[in-house]
Specification:
The chain has about 140 residues and is an all-alpha fold. Helices cover about 40% and strands about 0% of the residues. The protein has six helices and no strands.
């Protein structure tokens, strides 16, 4: 049985559903792209393979991402101030990537949320220090015109 065989596909999908693998894990297991797995789970591709009785995607037992409320956002910013967090710590706490955390901390995101007292970005005691410029050797300088 090869991986392109219809029976193998049906068995592999059944395993993914039984184990409730994430789309990425299922895509890696079957050897297709994540976009194709979403289409398979939605029933737009591999229509000939029967879905199990009561099949629902996304799987109900997996955590569903929800939109943050204004109170949640304010609580995250208060905790950022209280714990004097770095942007990376803030990103991990909120569950976003570093760029999104910078976006929020710089004031471009969550504009409707009032910043708590003591909020700073970056923290004054954590200013990035750049290396002082070193004098270039004489041989590397351009000759004056």
């Amino acid at each position: 049985m090869t991986k392109y065989d219809a029976q193998w596909r049906a068995d592999a999908l059944r395993e993914c559903w039984e184990k409730q693998l994430t789309p990425l894990e299922c895509a890696q297991y079957i050897g297709v792209t994540r976009a194709q797995i979403y289409a398979i789970f939605a029933g737009r591709e591999w229509k000939s393979i029967p879905r199990p009785e009561g099949f629902v995607y996304p799987f109900p037992s997996l955590p569903v991402q929800r939109k943050l409320t204004a109170d949640d956002k304010a609580a995250y910013l208060r905790r950022y101030v209280q714990e004097h967090q770095t942007p990376d710590e803030f990103a991990a706490m909120v569950g976003v990537n570093r760029e999104s955390a910078y976006h929020v901390l710089k004031g471009f995101g969550w504009k409707d949320i009032e910043r708590p007292p003591g909020f700073h970005y970056p923290w004054p005691d954590r200013q990035w220090s750049r290396k002082p410029k070193t004098e270039r050797p004489a041989w590397s300088r351009r000759a004056p015109k």
